[in-house]
């Protein structure tokens, strides 16, 4: 008798659930302070239209491949923690992730060594200098600075364990894939172009060796770092990577916990202080969101608990940050009250 009752109530529950419209179910999972989808959609479209004709900035050219990428490409993608997706423009074009990779190698290093160990070996101080600064390595007491400038990032890559270079590189690539929830691969031509012109990064790695602040063979570490920078992502994939951070390390699409929940605040605080290099202070002032840029033209910004926005547009400003990506994210963040330092971002009127 009991069993029959249970079966009836179970089938009733299944029946009732199937009657609930999907958006309602989705809404249960979403952050109570996330703005409504129609509002977000309107704002993202407005931003795209407002900035699409801005031609200021210039493609990076110190990596020859990047100079010849079509500078008109422009894509915006937003993914929420309950896996709603909004896209406008060139969101399927695969560009090199460049420095944005540094965020996810940091996550993997913390996964392997724990945050205290990583903090001790790399640090998290803004340098106030360009991302590839040699003087910063000499002047800053930790030498590495933080995991998001080239020196600190190469040192972070050197922390990843493996029996040889291939194993370490494949581990990094596979980890990025889990964060996206998709298979990623190297853009060979970017890798070749960058590997042929990365004397500056090799110099940084050797300088770190002088201070005992690199933890594997310096040139091997630069090579893996160069590969990680040459991984191809599109704007939508990048937004998914960001949404995983916004969602406490759980990929909103696969539901897999891919970054430890307790590591996320360390990652986001580092992004806030150093994600846009010597443009980070201005970014925190104007936008108030952890973000990371890459010289390939991508920027991803995280609204914790709500979602992430990724923009791809190759022309960069003096600091190496995409001009249009900064404009779009600033516009969207203001309109949607995303600024972390504003109490209205958590619903306070
Ligand atoms: O090592 C480099 O210079 C490039 N692979 C990455 C630099 C980068 O993306 C800085 N970004 N704004």
Summarize the helices and strands and which ones pair or pack.
Layout lengths: L1 H18 L2 H8 L7 H15 L12 H4 L7 E6 L4 E5 L5 E2 L4 H13 L1 H7 L12 H6 L10 H10 L5 H16 L7 H8 L3 H12 L7 H12 L2 E2 L1 H12 L17 H11 L5 H7 L4 E3 L4 E6 L3 E6 L10 H13 L14
The structure holds 6-diazenyl-5-OXO-L-norleucine (DON).
The site of 6-diazenyl-5-OXO-L-norleucine has 13 residues, from loops.
In terms of DSSP E residues, the strand content is: 5-15%
Strands in their spatial order, largest beta sheet? 2-1-7-6-5
Bound compounds, each kind once, are: 6-diazenyl-5-OXO-L-norleucine
How many helices in DSSP terms?
A: 16
- Element-by-element helix/strand order: HHHHEEEHHHHHHHHEHHHEEEH
Task: Work out the helicity level.
Answer: 40-55%
Distance between the termini: 53 Å
Shape: globular
**Rg, alpha carbons:** 21 Å
Secondary-structure-based class equals alpha+beta
Largest sheet properties:
5 strands, antiparallel
List low-pLDDT spans: 1-28
The residue-averaged pLDDT reads 92
Number of strands: 7
